[in-house]
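Data deposition worksheet. Section B asks for the primary sequence of the deposited chain exactly as it was used as input, without tags or linkers unless they were present during the calculation. Section C holds the resulting structure in token form. Section D is free text for depositor observations; keep each observation to a single sentence. Incomplete worksheets are returned to the depositor.
Section A, Depositor: J.P.
Section B:
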Amino acid sequence: MRGTPLIASGLAALALLAAFVVSRYQPRRRLRRLSGRVSPVVQSGGRVGGVPGQLSAYRWRPDLVRLAAGLSGLAVAVLVGGWAGPVAALPTVVLLDRLLRRIEPPAVRRHRLRAAADLPLAADLLAATLRAGAPVERSVLAVADALGGPLGGQLARVGRTLQLGGGPQEAWAHLATVPGAHRVATAAIRSASSGAALAGALTRLADDLRADRAVHLEEAARRSGVLIVLPLGLCFLPAFILAGLVPVIVAVLGDVL
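Section C:
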């Protein structure tokens, strides 16, 4: 029984290591796989193409999230022991599995923020191509080719869907993960159904998106200032206690005793 805490600690360390690997590497592989599927089409201006056998290079990999949750549950079972160990391990595994899958990895967050930052420029470019007389699907593919990056890949899927005869709602749904893109999609769907001019709406949306982004950046700067002060306050707290409170407490106790 003496080695039980040591075994539990080792299993917990393995679970933390697996969770770290999940947050660092698995999303990057997924993003590389998605970019590998999209980039040949973006570079060719909407023509489907790619390297033969490219997808076969991605083999099955174990689910590291489930592995981390399972190791954590095993650590809880070993630490608790007895019949109560498996009872406590089961909800631990389920809870950790759900929590780990809800955490947004840093790579995914960077791609999401980059797509949101490129969205106003994409709206301006799309408005310019529409004013030049190009149809919507060709305008979207041209903007996707010019932008590149995560937003360019998603716009390429929108343009391909429109070229293949897909409906506007189905096509613009590819931008659902981009913050603020629902406004662009709503304007495009409304234009397709009513025949209203889309270029002017996109220009106004680009200005609104830039204004919203400026407000969000200002709020983030204010929050960062507060977060910077908190560690500094924690550093000064021990000195304040030792220099201010301890002498007063010692003096009061000396008078009382």
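Section D:
Confidence is low (pLDDT under 50) at residues 34-61.
The longest helix spans residues 199-256.
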